[in-house]
Each structure stands twice: as structure tokens, then as C-alpha cells.
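Students often ask why inverse folding is considered easier than folding. One informal answer: many sequences map to the same fold, so there is more than one right answer. In these notes we will look at a single instance of the problem. The structure comes first.
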């Protein structure tokens, strides 16, 4: 049995796809999400390749994970320590735990909380949106990645059965940092108040994303931290692509990553629901790493401040030029 612990949008979609492929899946999450699944779960794909309706086991009880051979953790980064403590009380040492979370620190946090268990890093590159009660849609493309380790065998097999692409990697730290660099747009999207595609169609917003990414890549280079290539172009080229005029960007963007017009960042969703965001685990990681090097990351630091203000009810409908001004660009 595969348990999805902390099943929100990503957890429900991945769990639904695995269940559609024949896996025995239990979704463990908060009542507000699990109650919506009483009538079943629908998962759809970008481009309409898959449309599945499944009825996995759903529960709010962490103890349900005790029977799982494999637990996929999909809680928000600030909930990882709590999730690890809950799982430590119920999981046998034979259980394999996989972190399917944003950020670069979650695997270490889970390993600390779960001594004796095998904990693997994995990465979800795509965006998932909730289309309605019990309906989740993958809204951008990309391939799952996981530690190249024998303990990953059961998840690799389940993904193959579900026709869900997944790649074993030996450079997962570099993969997680690469995803973090891409996710620096989450804050900018949340502050724009627009869908991702509409936001990125505007050069003023793209200049903000470009500046945040370039600053992060410079900090990572100073720390001698490799960054994996996750898109059709190398990481260092992405900030350059974002600065081109709008007509040129429209021609090139679809070759880099496909995005559903309805897709929004998870940070936008957190602000909309008045939940804490993952800003400390995205821009905050760049700022923290810069400080370790005796440097500063003023653009990402400013974005942390603006998201903190938005969490407290502040502005989250910036125009691109207004946001550029706030970032000193």
C-alpha cells in the first residue's frame, strides 16, 4: 500500500494517478480536503492525455500510514517537522519514506525525525490546480525525479504502471536547488494576482523573476552548489530568456515549459486561503545562503518582505512595473 501523507493538490493528483495505474493508495490529509473526496477523485492531465476517476481510501488519521510499505510526504515545508513526528509514532522501520515537497531541507528534517527509516528525496516539477471538489488537474509539464536508490524500486514500478514519467537521479540536491530557482516565480505570481501564464506574458513581471533567479544562481555559484538542468535550456539561460520582448517570449516559452492558462502558484493559493506560505523555504533559502557567504540577496530579501506583508493582508495585486519598483529594478 502507498500512503500519501498530507494530501493536498499535489498529493491528491499523484495519488490519483497512481491509483488509476492499479496501486493501492490511501490519502491522509485534513478534513477540508478529505471530505471532498467522499464521492471519488478525478485527476486530469495537461493536454487531456489522462482523465481518471478513482476511489482511493481517504482518512484524516496518521495511523493509517502504519500499513504502508511506501509513504509519500506532501505537506508544506513548514509542516515537515510535525509530519515527521507523527509518522515516527506509527511507521515500522521497514517503511520507505519519500519527500515530494518544495525546498531543499525537507529530506534532512524527515531523516532526523525518522531514524532507522529509508528517506528519499524526490521532486515534482509541475503545477497542480484544484478545479472543483475532488477534481485535480496537472497544469504544467515536467517529469518526476527521485533518488537513484534501490529503495525507490516500488515507486518506480507504480509510476510505470500509471504511465507517470519518473527519472532516477544521482544529483538530487542539484535537482532540488534547480526546482527552487524555478519556484522563485511563486512569490511574484502570488503578488501579481494573475494566472502564471498571464503573469509571464508581461515582460515587467518576467524582469522581476529574472532578477530573482539571477541573484539566486550567483549565490549558488558562490557556494559551489551545482544546479541541475530541468528544462529544455540550461539554468543560466533562463533569466536571459525572461528578459526578451513579449513577442519573442511567446514564440520561445512553449518550447521550454507548457503551462495551462488556469495555473496559479501554490503560494497564491496559500495567500488566498490565508494560510502560511513557503516563502522561508524558497526566497528565504537564497537569503540565508547569501548570509552564510557574508553576502546579501536584496531582491529575494525584498520578496520575502512583500510576501510577509501579503500574509498580513497587504497588497497582492501589483502591476509588473509597480513590483519592479518595489524590488529596485
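Output (designed amino acids):
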Amino acid at each position: 500500500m502507498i500512503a500519501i501523507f498530507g494530501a493536498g493538490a499535489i498529493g491528491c493528483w499523484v495519488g490519483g494517478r497512481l491509483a488509476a495505474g492499479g496501486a493501492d493508495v490511501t490519502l491522509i490529509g485534513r478534513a477540508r480536503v478529505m471530505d471532498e473526496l467522499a464521492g471519488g477523485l478525478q485527476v486530469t492531465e495537461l493536454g487531456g492525455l489522462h482523465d481518471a476517476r478513482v476511489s482511493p481510501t481517504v482518512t484524516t488519521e496518521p495511523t493509517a500510514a502504519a500499513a504502508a510499505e511506501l509513504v509519500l510526504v506532501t505537506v508544506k515545508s513548514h509542516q515537515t517537522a510535525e509530519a515527521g513526528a507523527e509518522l515516527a509514532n506509527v511507521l515500522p522501520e521497514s517503511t520507505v519514506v519519500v519527500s515530494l515537497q518544495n525546498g531543499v531541507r525537507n529530506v534532512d528534517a524527515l531523516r532526523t525525525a525518522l531514524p532507522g527509516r529509508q528517506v528519499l528525496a524526490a521532486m515534482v516539477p509541475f503545477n497542480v490546480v484544484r478545479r472543483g471538489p475532488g477534481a485535480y488537474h496537472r497544469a504544467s509539464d515536467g517529469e518526476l525525479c527521485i533518488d537513484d536508490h534501490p529503495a525507490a524500486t516500488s515507486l518506480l514500478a507504480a509510476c510505470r504502471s500509471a504511465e507517470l514519467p519518473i527519472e532516477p537521479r544521482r544529483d538530487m540536491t542539484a535537482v532540488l536547488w534547480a526546482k527552487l530557482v524555478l519556484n522563485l516565480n511563486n512569490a511574484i505570481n502570488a503578488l501579481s494576482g494573475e494566472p502564471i501564464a498571464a503573469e509571464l506574458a508581461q515582460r515587467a513581471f518576467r524582469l522581476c523573476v529574472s532578477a530573482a533567479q539571477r541573484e539566486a544562481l550567483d549565490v549558488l555559484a558562490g557556494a559551489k552548489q551545482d544546479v541541475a538542468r530541468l528544462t529544455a535550456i540550461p539554468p543560466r539561460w533562463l533569466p536571459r530568456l525572461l528578459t526578451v520582448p513579449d513577442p519573442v517570449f511567446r514564440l520561445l516559452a512553449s518550447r521550454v515549459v507548457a503551462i495551462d492558462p488556469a495555473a496559479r502558484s501554490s503560494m497564491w493559493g496559500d495567500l488566498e486561503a490565508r494560510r502560511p506560505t513557503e516563502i522561508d523555504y524558497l526566497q528565504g533559502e537564497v537569503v540565508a545562503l547569501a548570509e552564510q557567504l557574508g553576502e546579501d540577496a536584496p531582491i529575494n530579501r525584498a520578496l520575502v518582505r512583500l510576501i510577509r506583508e501579503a500574509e498580513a493582508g497587504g497588497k497582492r495585486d501589483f502591476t509588473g512595473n509597480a513590483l519592479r519598483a518595489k524590488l529596485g529594478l
